[in-house]
Design brief:
With 254 residues, the chain is an alpha/beta fold. 44% of the residues lie in helices and 15% in strands.
């Protein structure tokens, strides 16, 4: 009997770019990919925290470096990625939330959220894919979306709109780039405990709402995302593209 062989989750000899990598989900993804064997390039706005993160990863005998990138400047995005690429793996984790009732949304907050969550993510994905196509290499591109890319949420009209849009361009790019063996997927976490979300958990009303919606009875931790990103980046997910991997504790199962 010829038995099938399990695909590898290893990422040896791969290079991964992770945006928003100075803390939270982005940092967790960078660590997970490095532990799986990839050389990780961490990008974020806070260069001091980025430098500390890279130093900590390298001290674990893993391979990491940092890269300055300005998500508001498309030409800067392209130039930075061209200089360091091509990247076998992308994790778009840079994100921004300006949560408020939709009747109170300001044009400034709308523009800031869309510019980071949608515009920045779009053009980073485009730049990485261009490098892969030019080098005639396959790749795995992962956009950190949200459960709010599939449902709505209190005070989250703009954030939800940005993540629904990420889901849309991910599917379209997956269709276009499949012929190049470039896979494009999203990871959609529920509320993950990070410094940026702590204010939400400190609000008793919001905390109660979150705990009632998550069927597993607990909030998400950064570690809950780390295994998923390694899976999607690896050959174990070689037939997965244009998909959304929900890490929401059953929130969207209703």
């Amino acid at each position: 009997m010829n038995l099938p062989t399990s695909p590898s989750f290893r990422l040896d000899n791969k290079t991964a770019l992770i945006t928003g990598a100075s803390s939270g989900i982005g940092l967790g993804c960078a660590i997970a990919l490095a532990e799986a064997g990839a050389h990780v390039v961490l990008a974020a706005r806070n260069l001091k925290k980025l430098d500390e993160a890279v130093d900590a990863i390298n001290k674990k005998k893993l391979s990491a470096e940092m890269m300055a990138i300005d998500l508001s400047d498309v030409s800067s995005i392209t130039e930075s990625i061209d200089q360091k690429g091509p990247f076998d793996i992308l994790v778009n984790s840079a994100g921004l939330g300006r949560h408020a009732p939709s009747l109170n949304t300001s044009a400034e907050d709308f523009d800031d959220v869309i510019n980071v969550n949608l515009r920045g993510a779009y053009f980073v994905t485009q730049a990485v894919a261009r490098g892969l196509v030019k080098a005639k290499k396959p790749g795995s591109l992962v956009n950190i979306s949200s459960q709010m890319g599939h449902v709505g949420g209190i005070d989250r009209a703009v954030y939800s709109a940005s993540k629904h849009a990420v889901e849309g361009f991910t599917k379209a790019m997956a269709i276009e780039w499949g012929k190049h063996q470039i896979r494009v997927n999203t990871i959609c976490p529920t509320f993950i405990r990070t410094p940026l979300t702590q204010s939400t958990f400190d609000n008793p009303e919001r905390k109660k709402w979150i705990e009632e919606k998550i069927k597993l009875g607990r909030v998400g931790e950064v570690e809950d995302v780390m295994g998923a990103v390694v899976f999607l980046a690896s050959e174990a997910a070689s037939m997965i593209t244009g998909s959304a991997l929900m890490i929401d504790g059953g929130w969207t199962a209703d």
